[in-house]
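Good morning C.,

I know you're traveling, so I'll keep this short. The sequence:
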Amino acid sequence: MSVEVEKTLRARTIGKNCGLFYVPEVLEYNNSKGLAVFERIHHISPIINVLKSTKQCSPIVKQVGSALAVIHRELTLPDEMIIELPLEFRSHGTEVFIHGDFNPINVCISLDTPSIIILDWQMTGQHGGEATYGTRYFDLIWFVNYLLWSPTFKFFFPDQVNKITKLFFQSYFKESGLFYDVEMFVRYSNNFFETKLPDRKKTTSRAERYLLPYSKELTKRFIKSLNSHQSCEG
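The tokens, ready to paste straight into the viewer:
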């Protein structure tokens, strides 16, 4: 909890300074009990609801990509809070301090203002819940991962996922000013989904199991599309 609170405090300052996103305030924190109280924000909605609309998603996706690039550029933590990603998700030479659970549920949009709100600054519990440091590709692919493995039929026709991811990556790499290394990104993506596939089969509920073939097809399309994103580099 101390790590999540520290990340939240620092990310909140970054968000205020850049104006691209908002992070809830930490109202109380009891270190001995490991309990924290965060600001409750009303009238917000997960951006997954916006991404289903081809008319509204473009500016939001671009803002989210830029926001993540700023987070990766500016977020730092004390040495004692550096906890690396699990070995299977590492990629040498691309390390940053990560959000750790950057997905279209934890990234929200305000219904009253044009702001995006980024929640839950703890590493996903699916992979230990502790990592704070690792490849920037993890946050990028984790965001896409949700779209691929919790699909709606809107994502199949007309291939909404590829449209979203291209805008997301273009905005990210433009803001970061980094070179878009296609080969490394494709290699990392392949490794990521090969690692996740066995978990999918084990954890998918009976009600969602029928989506697995569609998810696999979307994932293939996504990885193939990475080769055409040469314009992503900043």
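Safe travels,
E.
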